[in-house]
Amino acid sequence: MERIEHRACFGGWQDVYRHRSETLGCDMTVGVYFPPQAADGPCPVLYWLSGLTCNEQNFITKAGAQRYAAEHGIIIVAPDTSPRGNDVADAEGYDLGKGAGFYVNATQDPWAKHYRMYDYIADELPAWVEADPSASDARAISGHSMGGHGALTIALKNPGRYRSVSAFSPIVAPSQVPWGEKAFGAYLGEDREAWKQHDAVELVKSAKEKLPLLVDQGDADEFLDGQLKPHLLQAACEAMGHPLELRMQSGYDHSYYFIASFIGDHIAHHAKALRAG
């Protein structure tokens, strides 16, 4: 691995690394914030999954999360959103291909060769992170939009793996909205039953662990009614008795201004769960 950025930030360090991913078959970049407490011993880790069009830079430069991570002693790992490279398949538009991995393992050509973001986030990346002595094996996961979908589904599919999960403006039912239908049709094929394994609304129905879900959603979000549909997750959780705190935030949209406004709440939520473990 190669450290390509190293910047002092709130008493800790905001780094960016480049490493070879065997899972994805390409080089990947990932942002890692080390709080000051990491100099004295292992710290728990919060994985942040970003949304469509993003890479590792969006969260680390716009969310203002380092301040709160330093306060609570949490490492934040912010990976890229898709495989990258000249030989990686891509598509026209912003919602398929590079920058739009959707945190699934593609089964269809030409995507299957590289687009294995589920395995990368769930297995390869934590193994790489936790090999560092400053990181403990206590994990939490969060994300925004497509990344909120990824955080919810990966946590629901891996009971006991994460101590907490949260999301901003998540795509809660990708099987039922245009973004998800386009991506899942391309990556996973036309069998909609296979899509359900990456759909938070469907996964809640069979979840083996009642891990509480924290979701913040702006009521002025331009994608609220067409792509996000948080009421579907609320209905599924109510039907199954799955704990959900859905906070509709008045006046907020889909942007990083929204994330920056409430990221402190989310990191405090994760810190509480990580300490309790």
Automatic annotation (TrEMBL):
It is an enzyme of class 3 (hydrolase). Its EC number is 3.1.2.12. It holds the Pfam family Esterase. Keywords: Hydrolase, Serine esterase. SUPFAM superfamilies: alpha/beta-Hydrolases (SSF53474). It catalyses: S-formylglutathione + H2O = formate + glutathione + H(+). One of its GO terms (molecular function) is hydrolase activity. InterPro entries: AB_hydrolase_fold (IPR029058), Esterase-like (IPR000801), S-formylglutathione_hydrol (IPR014186). Belongs to the esterase D family. Serine hydrolase involved in the detoxification of formaldehyde. This is S-formylglutathione hydrolase. It comes from Luteimonas terricola.
